[in-house]
Amino acid sequence: MRASLIATVAARSSRFADKLALPLDYFVNRTKALALYRQFIRATKSLGDARTRWETMEWIRNDFERNRAVVDSEKCKTLLSLGHRQLKQLGSTSSLIGGNTSKFRGGRRAGGRTTPSALRKLMEDQETEQGRTRSSAVKALEKGRQFPSFRSGALKTVNLTLSTLRNDRGL
Q: Long-range contacts of range 49-57, CB-CB < 8 Å, 24 or more positions apart?
């Protein structure tokens, strides 16, 4: 009886037998990729407006998701170096975009994460603000039309700008 118990225990296979063994490089590269992802998300905080930030975050998220299953060490290293280059480009161009970035700084919401609904609200607020700015610009340009001291070239520029603003607003 005792021999049969030992035989059944010995016949049991390992629970890891059917899984592929992943190399150590996989885990090291995975950690580096997660750190790079966090750096990208932090870099988007300085972007100009909420819509730009949201689109950039979606692009980053999709890019990382697309390459999630890569196990090859060399391919991972190539992707990481490409990601670092893109992060530098994002950092250098984000200062050119401009905008009021104070809304994004320190803006942790909903348990430590910026939620999509909070970003949508910021986008709506910024669109409202842009609408106010455009209407002020239209009023200023209409006032400027009343002054005859404009040269003909400057007046054409004012008229073109005024018509562009009206087209943007749908007037």
A: 49/99, 49/122, 49/123, 49/126, 50/103, 50/104, 50/119, 50/120, 50/122, 50/123, 50/126, 51/123, 51/126, 52/97, 52/99, 53/104, 53/119, 54/116, 54/119, 54/120, 54/123, 56/90
